[in-house]
Design goal:
- The protein contains eleven helices and no strands.
- The longest helix is centred in the last third of the chain and has 54 residues.
- The termini are far apart.
- The chain is globular, with a radius of gyration of 24 Å.
- By secondary structure, it is an all-alpha fold.
Length: about 250
């Protein structure tokens, strides 16, 4: 992109016919806008690719802000829509391939080691897929967490690649278009957005905090459950050994 968001924010029009006043869109939303603006339309595709493989990076943040820039004339709206869907599809293909080639369990253990990723999320996606069949690949794209991970069990079950691709592209296109067009609607009224920046930042901070807190709580619960399981197994083993010794002594 030839125009940075910082320069764009400083030239916002306060009202039609009035002189422009320098206003800066700061906070977290401003930083994300600058990142998207610097990367351009292909950067949106890259971010959606990563978001599909690494769920904690939410498309709900990326796409509306990309749409906002497109609505303000800083990005090509059609190109954003096409490349966002391409990024989502390629990310889904990676998980599909991992499931088909490496297997669900091994891939789950491997990806479960990534920061802010929990193995239970993969189990949730697998349960959704096994309950709803192939249609889960389409409708799962509209469900948080499942949207990103549904490709893994689809690959592990060797779902037909053509069907998988059609369902993924159509559903991802609908989801991405809704978020991008929502942001674009605000982008056409960018002179009014500055007053909502603080609220946008608050939503982003709350979303990030919720992801981190949820991950920490689930990880602590898992560690406690594992410890309890090991303790229980240890006691059971000790009891079994004691019985064997008593039986041997009696003989």
């Amino acid at each position: 992109m030839t125009t940075a968001v910082a320069a764009f924010a400083h030239t916002m029009t306060v009202a039609a016919g009035d002189s422009a006043s320098d206003q800066e869109m700061g906070g977290l939303s401003g930083l994300v806008l600058q990142l998207i603006d610097a990367l351009g339309e292909w950067g949106v595709a890259l971010m959606l690719f990563v978001e599909t493989v690494f769920p904690p990076i939410p498309s709900e943040v990326i796409l509306p802000l990309a749409g906002f820039l497109a609505g303000a004339g800083r990005m090509n709206l059609v190109l954003v829509l096409l490349l966002a869907t391409l990024g989502s599809y390629l990310g889904a293909l990676v998980l599909y391939w991992l499931g088909a080639v490496i297997g669900f369990e091994r891939t789950t253990r491997w990806l479960g080691k990534l920061p802010l990723v929990d193995e239970d999320d993969f189990r949730t996606a697998a349960d959704w897929f096994h309950r709803h069949g192939r249609s889960a690949v389409f409708f799962g794209r509209f469900v948080p967490i499942v949207r990103s991970l549904i490709s893994l069990p689809a690959g592990a079950d060797r779902m037909h690649l053509g069907t998988f691709s059609v369902f993924t592209i159509i559903a991802s296109g609908i989801w991405n278009s809704a978020l991008v067009l929502l942001g674009a609607a605000f982008g056409t009224q960018y002179d009014k957005v500055e007053q909502y920046t603080e609220w946008i930042d608050r939503v982003l901070y709350v979303a990030i905090a919720a992801v981190v807190v949820t991950f920490v709580v689930r990880r602590v619960r898992r560690i406690r459950a594992d410890r309890a399981g090991r303790t229980g197994n240890g006691r059971a083993d000790g009891t079994a050994r004691g019985r064997r010794r008593a039986e041997a002594a009696g003989d």
